[in-house]
Predict the structure of Leucine-rich repeat-containing protein 43.
Amino acid sequence: SVSAAFQEHMRHLGLQDFPCGLGSWNKSRFNACTSPRGGRPGLGADPVRQEEALPLGEETPEALMELLSDRHSPWALPAGCSPQDHHLREMAVLAPELIRGSNIFQVFRSLRIIGKGVEEVDPGLLQLQQLEELILSANQISRITSANLPQTLKVLELCCNAVADLQDLCAQPPPELQHLGLGYNRLCGPSQDKYLTADFWPNLISLDLSFNNFTDLLELVSQLSSLQKLRVLVLQGNPLALITTYRGFLVDSLPKLSVLNDIHIRPDERHQFHGLARQPELIRSEARVVVSVGEIKGVPDPSTLQQLELGSEALVITYSYCVTYEF
């Protein structure tokens, strides 16, 4: 579940272990509600005054922070950790009381759990009441219940999963969502087209539907046209992208669109395709594909077989092959 992956991530960060958290290395700074100088400890504490009153055996905040920042330190975070991970570790040194217990849930604005084998988005995610960005790419999620998503979400990325149905996601979707990433999943039209409207996503600005199985361009566009705030759309990798007039039809049908398949829509391009949306008869539900086979390995070459002599009664072996293309 997402909650299990989240807890594992917290253990990986070691927010309660040296040089973070509370311990003998900083006991005097946090053993009471006030600091030795009478002010609350925190990110703005005076390091000089703290060092003057430092008991024997404790470390200064600067020394602890250096252990986190020095890339040769055994306590440094590995490469690839997010800025939020580094910020949490800094807080765990300078103000560990702010991220103890349930306080940690109020800190998160972004959560990235990528390639961790997550199958379920469970209700535990609701503890992150300030979460705005949720990245769950490259997992094994097939279905999402919107009731388990924080309503504060603005970005939801589900690329490279096994999502085949949007019904549960659209039961109670986050109302302020601005980006929805569904690329490389198993969505098929037209059964899923009806969930891609402003009734469910009134504030959507960016939508990624790449590499799914949408086939009906007219039906999909009729639903997407209700998304008045949509500016970025990715549809490449779907069968409908084989239609020759596909890009022009989208450009003319969605006049507020700025970027299609990661390519900016230029004014001259919009002028070129003007009026195409009123000619749906130009959209043909067929495509011509030319396939050429350059080389085949592991198949006997008939031309190299020795020719049988006329009248020979030797056994004749014939070979037949079937080549299948899946689109």
Notes: Strands lie at 110-112, 133-135, 155-157, 179-181, 206-208, 232-234, 259-260, 263-264. The first strand starts at residue 110 and ends at 112.
